[in-house]
Amino acid sequence: MAQSNRALYEQVILEHNRKPRNFRGMEDADRRIEGHNPLCGDHFTLYLKLNGDVISDISFEGRGCAIAKSSASLMTTLLKGKTVREAEDLFVQFHRMVTANPDAPVDEKAVGKLAVFSGVREFPIRVKCATLSWHALLSALRGTHSSVSTE
Ligand code: ZN
Are 137 and 76 in contact (CB under 8 A)? Predict the structure, then answer.
């Protein structure tokens, strides 16, 4: 990865960590799920409001490391207004990127802004931090569990 890209990516992550978007509870949520990553201590509650199969609102609260928090924050900004299907597709692309070989090129067209997390490929333990909110999202969309854990 180009050094300049990496510095830019780190800036975006730190900025979302400092000022997370949609960081609030939601009393009238249709779905509510807790996500827990015991290895790092990341623990978030994710809230969703659905209008048919469109995610009309999404928010989260809790605590976690910079990677987990900024990933949840960026996720909420990307998914508001998206369909369940689009959200699932984006997760597939994101998951493919963070679990790929570190030398593999990043498909920026497929992952869009999520490219800022491509650096976690070099730190497998961080992959769980980056994907925690996404796993919680999928579980909430499928409506099968009220909590998910990375372990
Ligand atoms: Zn973490």
Answer: no
Residue 150 lies in a domain: no
Give the C-alpha distances (Å, rounded to integers) separating 47 from 76, 94, 97, 111, 139. 10, 20, 25, 23, 12
Q: Using the mean position of ligand 1's atoms as its centre, give its distance from the Cα of residue 51 in Å.
A: 31
Distance 127 CA to ligand 1 centre (A): 9
User: How many separate domains does the chain show?
Assistant: 1
Amino acid letter for position 54? V
CATH number at residue 101: 3.90.1010.10
Distance 116 CA to ligand 1 centre (A): 16
Per-residue pLDDT reduced to its tens digit, 78-128: 999 999 999 999 999 999 999 999 899 999 999 999 999 999 999 988 999
Report whether 151 contacts 128 (CB < 8 A): no
pTM over 0.90: yes
Domain assignment of residue 133, yes or no: yes
Q: How far is the CA of 67 from the centre of ligand 1 (A)?
A: 6
Structural domain including 61 reads: 3-145
**Cα 141 to ligand 1 centroid, rounded to whole Å:** 23
